[in-house]
Design brief:
mainly alpha, globular
Length: 123
């Protein structure tokens, strides 16, 4: 069994309205390229380390950069979040959470002792 990530038909159907219109030559392999981008982002890989099943790394990078500059990913997130509020359900998956190594040193008191901060998750 492969551990590559692939979007399913239902997921692609929900994302398709947010894709930019193709001008001139039609885009191919939206599922393959978007699945490759998600795989790269989720695993923290370099574009050059993308498995060849997702296509050329240059294609993945170019489309990611272009769509990011155009605000496509922001529209996707806003649209999916708006859909969630209609159902009164918002699900957050925090299984892939990355923290920068310097984040732990940001809340220091004088004297070098760490200042603890409590979080109330009930509210």
């Amino acid at each position: 069994m492969s551990n590559l990530f692939w979007l399913i038909d239902a997921q692609m159907a929900r994302l398709k309205p947010y894709f930019p219109k193709s001008h001139g030559k039609p885009r191919h392999h939206d599922r393959r390229v978007l699945s490759g981008m998600i795989f790269i982002y989720r695993n923290g890989l370099r574009w050059s380390d993308a498995p060849r099943e997702y296509g050329p790394p240059k294609t993945l990078y170019n489309r990611s950069k272009r769509w990011s500059d155009m605000g496509v990913f922001a529209r996707i997130m806003a649209g999916l979040a708006a859909e969630g509020t209609e159902r009164k359900t918002i699900m957050i998956d925090a299984t892939c959470l990355k923290v920068h190594r310097t984040a732990s040193s940001l809340r220091l008191k004088k004297g070098g002792q760490r200042q603890e901060r409590s979080v109330d998750w009930a509210n």
